[in-house]
Design goal:
mainly alpha; Hypothetical protein af1432; globular; 15 helices
């Protein structure tokens, strides 16, 4: 059992909508016009509505109302368009996940929170959107495991009260790989950019791969900061026993102090509910 084989076997179950695949193809072609992209998007009214909501959200902070898909594309660009199209569609991709293993609203709330946090931690404006997508999709490997291996997944979840590192160890014991590796393989086969799926792949061991050390550390830091944020609570960034070693390493690499983390949490709280309502 390996991630590539599993994803190949379940791609018909967890596949992106045709419109997303088509937009990916057009953007990969490199010479696609905004009008061509607009024509494809307008054929999907639900995607059109979500894209315009994104463009008009505080997430972008644009001045003036964006009232057409063409204007939205011209403002956010093709790379960010691809990311937002995936974000707009991904929650519909994962259905029939066992409810005894995961509450999907809680799962996607945490995923959106991870995405917003990763975006805030991004080192440059140009990289913000891909970090949002990496954060949003960082846990999809878990959904595949929940769907395909519910009994083993239940055993893994029973280890979480011992800490995240215990759960990761259990994944390697039962499956031979982690949910991060499995999720990265799905994103690779979805043809997302390599710097997104590689970031997801190394999120649990960000120091392992020098090329993606900073990106993976940013995602790792974001996910573990997001763990402090729960719907309708004011949980503080404490409880060090629940923080895995690789998170401390990532925070140290990025120079994140407790004060900075608290500040990031405060800003994330202001953005996450609006985005969650759009995505979910």
């Amino acid at each position: 059992m390996d991630p590539c084989t599993i994803v190949t076997n379940i791609r018909s179950i967890f596949s992106l909508p045709d419109v997303v695949v088509r937009i990916n193809e057009l953007i990969d072609a490199g010479e696609t016009t905004n009008l061509e992209l607009e024509r494809v998007i307008l054929n999907d009214p639900a995607l059109t509505a979500k894209l315009l909501k994104f463009a008009n959200s505080s997430y972008f902070g644009l001045s003036g109302r964006v009232d057409t898909v063409l204007r939205a594309i011209s403002i956010i660009g093709h790379k960010e368009l691809r990311n937002l199209v995936v974000a707009s569609s991904v929650t519909e991709t994962f259905k029939d996940i066992p409810s005894n293993l995961v509450n999907m609203d809680t799962f996607w709330y945490h995923s959106v929170t991870s995405g917003v946090t990763a975006r805030l931690l991004a080192s440059s404006v140009d990289s913000r959107e891909r970090f949002f997508i990496a954060g949003l999709l960082h846990g999809v490997g878990r959904l595949i495991l929940f769907s395909q291996y519910p009994k083993e997944s239940a055993k893994v979840l029973s280890c979480i009260n011992q800490g995240e590192e215990a759960a990761i160890h259990a994944e390697r014991k039962f499956f031979g790989f982690t949910h991060a590796q499995l999720g990265a393989e799905l994103l690779r086969q979805w043809r997302l950019p390599v710097n997104i799926w590689k970031t997801v792949e190394f999120q649990l061991d960000p120091m392992h791969e020098e090329t993606y050390k900073y990106d993976a550390s940013t995602l790792c830091a974001a996910v573990n900061i997001a763990n402090f944020i729960q719907p309708c609570t004011n949980q503080k960034a404490n409880g060090e026993k629940s923080i895995p070693t690789h998170a401390f390493e990532a925070w140290n690499l990025l120079g994140l102090t407790p004060e900075i983390i608290e500040s990031v949490i405060a800003v994330t709280r202001l953005q996450v509910i609006e985005l969650f309502n759009i995505v979910r």
